[in-house]
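Before we proceed, please read the two lines closing this message. Let me know whether the structure tokens fit the sequence:

…
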Amino acid sequence: MKYTKLERNWVMYDVGNSALVLLNTSVVPIYFNAINTGASSADLVVAWGNAQTIASLVIAMLMPILGALADYAGNKIKFFLGFFLTGLVLCLAQAIPMSAMAFLTVYVLCTIGLNSSMTFYDAMLPDITTDERMDAVSSSGYAWGYIGSTVPFVICLALIMGGPALGVPTMLATRLSFIITGAWWLIFTLPLIRTYKQKYGRERGPEDTIGHIVGGVFSEVGHTMREIAHNKTVLVYMIAFFFYIDGVHTVISMATSYGSALGIDSQLVLALLVTQFVAFPSAIIYGKLAGRVGTLNMILVAVAAYMGIVLFAAFFLKTAFEFWVLAIMVGLFQGGVQALSRSYFGRIIPKEKSNEYYGFFDIFGRYASVMGTFLVSVVTSLTGNPSLGVLSIGVLLVVGFMLLVRLSRMTRAAEHAA
């Protein structure tokens, strides 16, 4: 499929932001563990889980409100740009030597900027392509994001691992990786900023002053909540998404910290790099299979696979080799489930309110990963056993799978009735 210039530029932002996502998933937890000396393995997992939880809660509270404001014509790019620049500045700030707690604070704020920009980026999907092309374009975003992010990551990894031989201490090399990643993020964001035009949005009338718009945001959010409650397809899907993607993202965000706590640091980063290469063709294939067997069916396959991944991590993940197996399994399904979840939602919502709907979508999904990280932290704290903490993620995936099965039945019944 040949992509338009705007579709390509939209995909390029995935290439840019995925570099920081990969760094945050792999290098940052290990760096945090290194500067947080004296803490036990359980304490490190809890601290990292709490940081993820705080970032998720802040964004979950902000996104529906900011989304309602961004749905006015011309506002989407402004909010996107604001959060992108915030994340970029704080990404670069992490290169400054500081205490563990100060670093964790900067990391949380950087994560808020990064993930908030991605909310508005996701909401651009209906503007830049058609319903028929959404699965393919969304899958390409994730696919090229995975493979493209490996370029700066390999540079950073080479600097971290080979730096001492050149007289560059490992800690300094790690800090320089934040600058390299930030520069990559900026370069691949500029084309989207230059070419994006909001296609769907509410026009601003003479009565829509700044005060009137801000004052009406909460009533608009309430109206959208009622719309969602009365649309069974959207409601069931959002609740299912809340549970299953929460499990998916918790596996991603906690994997390296968990592996480090088990004492298998040496090959963690390389194994996660393999995940990126595996995820590239997998995401593309997922997009094509969705067109043949159905988007919802492919999401169900991925959620079932993640149940197996969690069981493997909880009971068998003890050595570096087993972490490699985990990394490959995650790569096979990670990009596909994320891409199709994004595109499926984009087809079932009113496009002129995409920002506001995607704001709620992120509460029910990516930023509601509060439950997953909180579960891991609490269970690990109570038992002192990180394996049981990881096993708790399976509960979320099972609930999500059951709701998706119900949605599939609802969809087939509606098609037969029509």
In short: The radius of gyration is 21 Å. The chain is about 80% helix and 0% strand. The first helix runs from residue 5 to 35.
